[in-house]
Amino acid sequence: MGTTTCAARRPSDPKDKLLAGLKDSFQYCATALGTLKDAQLADSTPFFGGRNATRGLAALITVADWADHYSQMAIYLRLNGLLPPTAKKA
Q: Nearest 5 degrees, angle CA 7-CA 25-CA 67?
C-alpha cells in the first residue's frame, strides 16, 4: 500500500464529482488490499499521527472504519424513516 495523490474535493463540489472521488478512493483501497500478500502483513507502514503500524493492522483498521461509517449512515437513514440499501429485500 503505497501513497498516492488525488484531486482535491470540497463539500461544495457537485455531487457527481464527490461520488467519483469516493468511488476512486474505494477502488484504490480495493486494489491496495487485494494485492497485499501474507508475507507483507508484518511490514511497517506510515500511519495516522506520524506513527508506524503494520500493514495488517492498517488494513484491519481501514475495513473496521468503513463498517463504523456505514453503521452510522444506516442508523441515520432508519431514524429518518428510510431503509439502508442492504436492508431492502431484493
A: 140
- Is 75 buried (19+), middle (13-18) or exposed (0-12) by CB count in 10 A? exposed
pLDDT in tens, 13-25: 999 999 999 899 9
The answer to whether 28 and 20 are in contact (CB under 8 A) is no
List 45's β-bridge partners, or say none.
53
pTM beyond 0.85: the answer is: no
Q: How many helices (H) does the chain have, and how many strands (E)? A: 2, 2
What is the rounded CA–CA span in Å between residue 30 and residue 75?
Answer: 25
User: Which contiguous run of DSSP H or E holds residue 45?
Assistant: strand 44-46
